[in-house]
Recover the amino acids of this structure.
């Protein structure tokens, strides 16, 4: 755990001279991992970057996890692990927990592993060209610092709500080629999907060229999502339970002319019940690599081993989901949310599901409105790299007071990394356990307006002064 705790939340390093191999979702598929080792070899001849989702679904989750952790211990400068959504406690307790109980017969082992997951890096930037993460980008990635400054262990009580939103998007979001809005509520219901325009805005803000991700099942193993090389999805597992026919991996190398080349490997692998021959081959490669690079130092003590695991690890909220966002809006943004017709109609009809969905869609623009109070009388400000037209219209409706209104969009070179240092207005921890019924009642009593007057008939400054 110390190795991961000492690494930054955002890894940044040049492309290794021996190349970098990208491993996508494994989901307990040991056969595909061993085939990759057979093809590429072991460190120090090669460097590996895992995009997360090592766990769940497959039959050899603990074996893969232990093997990769041992590789990280042995070659910390040649093996990098990023966190996936299946390394979140909310998912591991559904799948991985039973596997731990079966393999170890000790519930504490499951808790210790999840404690380690809370220290895994979230993303990586290599040679100021490639951006790696498990799922996708976030509209709040206005600069690298907004990722790098996310504290670990990940706990919403120690973070700002926007940092929780960035984590959610990194672990859950998906690219949508046909999506009209730059960022929109994902079909997964817990993040914002992004289109090509949104991705390019984030890549410019981070000063990189290409996003390489996992997260999605790709029957062909590797997919160029937008057809322009800006978003590449890699899926390595091929087991029948994940519905994938090919194992995809990528090796990135740099040619003599300085250009980067992605050598894609798509292998049609049929998993077998026995792997004895493959294990013998991989074992021989491993022994050769270990003999070539002997250890010169040994860490005798580990600061984590004798510590009792924190009891709150099972109750820790690690990212900002729809519950946290809805509660935040109910406490701090109702005066603005009520001017959205869809939200107001759902509130009046007591339609909890529609209200929660619309609240999640409104949250980015409501956060801008509440935090900056319009920026000034004529120039609203934003944390985000890009705004949709309807969001601009919504902010204009709230704050414009002159005909020469101009919206300011904060981009990479303009953003102050300290913007995210604004003290976040967090709801009390016990409020996060409230049901939608409680949220609806909070909404009903939060303001004194039963029938909302038209914005044209109400003084804007008077509305903004209401508590």
């Amino acid at each position: 755990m110390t190795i991961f705790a000492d690494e930054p939340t955002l890894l940044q390093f040049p492309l290794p001279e021996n190349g970098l191999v990208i491993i996508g979702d494994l989901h307990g598929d040991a056969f595909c991992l061993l085939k990759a080792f057979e093809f590429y070899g072991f460190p120090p001849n090669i460097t590996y970057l895992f995009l997360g989702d090592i766990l769940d679904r497959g039959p050899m989750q603990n074996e893969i996890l232990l093997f990769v952790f041992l590789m990280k211990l042995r070659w910390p400068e040649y093996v990098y692990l990023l966190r996936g959504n299946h390394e979140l406690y909310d998912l591991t307790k559904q799948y991985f927990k039973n596997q731990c109980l079966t393999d170890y017969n000790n519930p504490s082992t499951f808790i210790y592993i999840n404690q380690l997951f809370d220290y895994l890096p979230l993303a990586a930037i290599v040679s100021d060209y490639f951006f790696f993460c498990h799922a996708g980008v976030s509209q709040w990635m206005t600069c690298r610092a907004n990722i790098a400054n996310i504290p670990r262990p990940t706990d919403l009580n120690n973070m700002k709500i926007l940092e929780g939103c960035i984590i959610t998007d990194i672990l859950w979001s998906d690219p949508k080629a046909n999506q009209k809005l730059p960022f929109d509520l994902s079909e997964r219901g817990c993040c914002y999907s992004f289109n090509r325009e949104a991705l390019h805005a984030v890549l410019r803000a981070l000063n990189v060229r290409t996003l390489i991700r996992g997260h999605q099942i790709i029957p062909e193993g590797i997919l160029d999502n937008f057809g322009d090389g800006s978003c590449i999805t890699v899926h390595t597992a091929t087991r029948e339970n994940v519905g994938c026919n090919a194992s995809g991996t990528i090796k990135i190398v740099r040619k003599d002319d300085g250009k980067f080349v992605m050598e894609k490997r798509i292998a049609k692998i049929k998993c077998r019940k026995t792997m004895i021959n493959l294990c013998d081959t991989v074992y021989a490669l491993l022994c050769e690599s270990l003999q070539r690079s002997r250890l010169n130092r040994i860490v005798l003590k580990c600061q984590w081993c004798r510590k009792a695991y924190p009891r709150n690890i099972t109750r820790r909220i690690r990212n900002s989901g729809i519950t946290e966002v809805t509660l935040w809006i109910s406490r701090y943004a109702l005066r603005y949310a009520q001017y959205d017709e869809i939200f107001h109609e759902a509130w009046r009809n007591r339609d909890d599901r529609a209200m929660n969905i619309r609240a999640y869609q409104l949250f980015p623009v409501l956060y801008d409105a509440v935090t900056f109070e319009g920026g000034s009388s004529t120039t609203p400000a934003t944390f985000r790299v890009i705004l949709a037209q309807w969001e601009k219209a919504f902010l204009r409706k709230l704050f414009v007071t002159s005909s020469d209104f101009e919206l300011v969009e904060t981009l990479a070179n303009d953003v102050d990394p300290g913007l995210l240092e604004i003290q976040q207005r967090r709801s009390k921890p016990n409020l996060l356990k409230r049901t939608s019924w409680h949220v609806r009642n909070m909404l009903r009593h939060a303001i004194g307006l039963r029938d909302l007057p038209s914005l044209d008939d109400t003084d804007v400054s008077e509305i903004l002064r209401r508590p």
